[in-house]
Amino acid sequence: MENIIELTRGVPPTKSFAVDKLSICAHDALAGYPDKILQYSQSFGFLPLRESLAEIYLANKDQIIIGTGSLQVLDHLLRSFPTGTLRVGFEEPTYDRTITQLKRVQASLLPCPLKLEGVDLSALRKNLEEGKKVDFFYVISDFQNPTGSVMPLEKRHELVALAREHHFYIIEDLPYRNLRYNGQSLPSCYELAPELTCMMSSFSKLIAPGLRVGFMILPKELVHRTAKVAEDTYINPSYLDQALVYEFCCRGWLEEHLVFLKELYSHRRDVMADAMDRHLTGLCDWKRPDGGFFIGSFVKQSVQADVLMQHALKHGLKLTDGRGFYTQGGDQFVRLPFCALEDEQIEIGIARFAETLKTYPG
Amino acid sequence: MENIIELTRGVPPTKSFAVDKLSICAHDALAGYPDKILQYSQSFGFLPLRESLAEIYLANKDQIIIGTGSLQVLDHLLRSFPTGTLRVGFEEPTYDRTITQLKRVQASLLPCPLKLEGVDLSALRKNLEEGKKVDFFYVISDFQNPTGSVMPLEKRHELVALAREHHFYIIEDLPYRNLRYNGQSLPSCYELAPELTCMMSSFSKLIAPGLRVGFMILPKELVHRTAKVAEDTYINPSYLDQALVYEFCCRGWLEEHLVFLKELYSHRRDVMADAMDRHLTGLCDWKRPDGGFFIGSFVKQSVQADVLMQHALKHGLKLTDGRGFYTQGGDQFVRLPFCALEDEQIEIGIARFAETLKTYPG
To answer: Greater confidence, A15 or A344?
Structure first.
C-alpha cells in the first residue's frame, strides 16, 4: 500500500515552530550577551532562564538544573547513585525512554499497573510495608505518555503520603502539563510536596524539541550531586538554546504560542477521538484525553505485538510496539499519537487500525 | 592582595568569539532549514556537519558522532561497555576530566608517565606482555592538556604498533591540533591507523566553547553502540549549535578565524614563555610549546600542592591543583594557561609564580 500512515512518534509538527520569532531570539541573545552564551559556564544551565523558572514554579533557582532535554537531567540524577543500587517504582505502561534509562543504571524495577481508572499503587505499598527500600517513584501525572491519562487527585495524595511516610522521592515528569485542552488542572505532586519531588519538564513540546531544553527542579540534597554528574559529562549544556527559550518566554511569546498549540492539538485530539468512536468501539478500550499528545488504547482481543505491527503495515499503517512501554507484556497496548498528523491522516490511520484489528489473523 | 591573577582554566578569551558572524549563521540556519534543526532527530548529530567532517578527515560520515562537546561523546563511548569492565591506559599527567570519566565507569587505570621528552609507554608494554587486556589508550597527541607537549613521531608509531599487535583502540583527543603556531604537523594516530583510532575533536577552542559542539570519529564496530547510548541519554544533541558551526565552516570563516586565533595565541604563548625564561629559570622545568593553550611546568623543589596554591594566593595568584591531572602525585606539576589572559596579566602572573616558589615555606 502507498502512503503509509505513521501513528508512531509523539513529536510536534514542524509547522508548529515559531521560526521567525526564534530567529529574533537568537539574534538578540547573541547581540545582547555573547559572553554569557559562547563561553564555558556552569553545568546548572543558563542563569536567567533558571531565574524565570524559579519564579514560575516558586522554586529556588539553585535547585534548578537545565540540560540537553529533561531526559538528560534524569540521567544525571540516576547516575549520581552507584550503578545497581537504586529501586525505582513507576506506572506501567510508562515512557519507554525512562525504562531504558532505569535499566541502564541497573535499577531494580517496581512497576505498578496503570489502567484507564488510574495507577494501582498496591505493589508499591506492599513493597514498602515489607520493609523494602524504594528510592524513587516516577510518574507522568498529566496526559501521561503513553496513555494520555491524568492521575486522579486522590492518587496524587496517596503517592505523596507514601513518599512522606517511607522516605522516597517522586520524580514527576510534566512535559505536557501546559497542554491541557479542557477541564481544570489538578495540583501536581510537586505542588503538594516540593521537598519530596524531582519535577522535570521541557520546552520540547512547547517551543521546539530540537532546542533540547529541559529541566529538573530538585530537592536541595539532590541538586549538587546531579549538577556534578552534569559537569563531569559535558561541562555545561548549550547556553545558546537556553537563551533562545529565555528570550521567547520574556517577550510573552510562550503564552501566545500556547494558545495556538492548544487550538492545534485539541482539534487533532477531537479528530482522533471522534474517529475512534466511529471505528474502534468494541475493539479497544480508551478514554478521550484532556490534553497532551496521545490516546492510549487497550486492544480487547488477544494480539501479539509483532504480528499486530506486521499486519498493520499490510494495511498501510505503522504502529509503535506497545511492549516498549512495559517491563513485560504490553502486546495489547497501542499508543496513538494525534500531535503530528493532519486531520485526514488521522482519519485514515484510525480506520486502518480498525481494519487491522478486524482482520487480525488467528 | 588586590586583582588576583587566575592562571587556572584553559578557556578562550571572550573577545575571540566571532559574534556577528555567528549571528548571521544562526539566522541563515533557522531561515534555511528550520525543520532540520528544530525537530527531534538522529543521535549522531547534524548530517551536513557530519558530511563536512567526513570530507575533512577522509572518514565515513556514518562513523562520525557529534555531541554536546567531545567529552560527552567520550562518555557515550565509555558507557557503551558494562561498568567496571574497561582497562584504559593514558599519559600522566592528562586531561583531568577524562580521568574523572574513566573513574566514573570504574575503568582500571593504567597511567604512563609523560615527561618533557614524551610519554614512556613501558608500563603499557609490560601490561600487554603479561597478557593483561587493555581496551583503550587515551592520548592528546598535539599540544597536550595539561603539558602543552607534542607526542614525538616515533611514540605515535610505537603506540599504533602496540595497538595493532595487542588489539586495543587509541582514543586520540585533538582539540588543539589546528592551533599550531610554528613547526610542522606530525601525522596523527588517526591518520596512521584510522581503523584503530577513536579520534575526538571539538569546535570549542576554534569557534566557541558555549556552542558545545564536539565530535568523535569511531571505528565501524564502535559507532552504533556509542550512538545508542547517545540516543538513550538525550535522543539527539542540539542541532542549532551544530548548524551554526556548519554555516561558519561553509562560508570559509573558520579558516579566516584560525589565522586570527593563531596570531592571538602565539603572541600570548611568547609573552608567557619569555616571562618564564626571565623569572622561572632554575625554579621549574618546561618547554616552549608549538601550539595549544598551555605550558606545563614541573617545579624543581619539593612542594605540596595545597600549600603551594595557598601560598600563591597570598601572592595574588590562583593556580590549578596539579594533582587533578594525575591519578596519584602531581604536587610538582603546575599547568600554566596562556590563552585567556592579556599580556600584562601573564607577565604579572608569572612573576608572582616565581615569587611564590622563591618564598615557598619550608
So the answer is: A344
Instruction: Please identify, among A251, A281, A309, the residue that sits at the C-terminal boundary of a domain.
Output: A251
Instruction: Give the lowest-confidence range in A155-164, B8-17, B251-260.
Output: B8-17
Chain A contact present for B71, CB below 8 A: yes
Point out the domain boundary residue: A228, A251, A274: A251
For residue B64, the enclosing domain spans 19-251
Q: What is the CATH number of the domain that holds A176?
A: 3.40.640.10
Q: Which three cell numbers stand for residue A5?
A: 500512515
Q: Which residue has the cell 565515513?
A: B60
pLDDT at B144: 97
* Helix, strand and coil percent figures for chain A, each rounded to 5: 45, 15, 35
Nearest beta carbon to residue B211 from set A68, A97, A238: A238
Contacts of B68 in chain A (CB under 8 A): 68, 234, 237-238
Strand partners, B88: B109, B136
- We report the CATH number of the domain holding residue B260 as 3.90.1150.10
Judged by CB atoms closer than 8 Å, whether chains meet at A17 and B34 is answered as: yes
Residues A171 and A266 placed together within one structural domain of the fold? no
**Does B54 contact A at CB distance below 8 Å?**
no
Contact B211 A240 (CB under 8 A): yes
Q: Please, are residues A246 and A36 in contact by the beta-carbon 8 Å criterion?
A: no
Q: Could you give the ipTM of this predicted complex? A: 0.96
User: Hey, how many other C-beta atoms are within 10 angstroms of the C-beta on B290?
Assistant: 19
Contact B233 A75 (CB under 8 A): yes
The pLDDT tens digits of the residues spanning B253-310 come to 999 999 999 999 999 999 999 999 999 999 999 999 999 999 999 999 999 999 999 9
Other Cβ atoms within 10 Å of B31 Cβ, number: 11
pLDDT, mean of residues B171-184: 97
Q: Distance from A285 to chain B by nearest Cα, in Å?
A: 30
Tell me, yes or no, whether B333 and B241 share the same domain.
no
Stretch 9-38 of chain A: residues touching chain B, C-beta under 8 Å: 9, 11-12, 14, 17, 19, 22-23, 26-27, 30-31, 34-35, 37-38
DSSP string, B188-241: PHHHH-GGGEEEEEESTTTT-GGG-EEEEE--HHHHHHHHHHHHHHHSS--HHH
Q: What is the mean pLDDT of residues B42-48?
A: 98
d(CA A86, CA A94): 18
How much is the pTM? 0.96
Number of domains in chain B: 2
pLDDT value at A1 more than 60: no
pLDDT single digits (tens) A54-95? 999 999 999 999 999 999 999 999 999 999 999 999 999 999
Pairwise CB contact (< 8 Å): A241 & B244: no
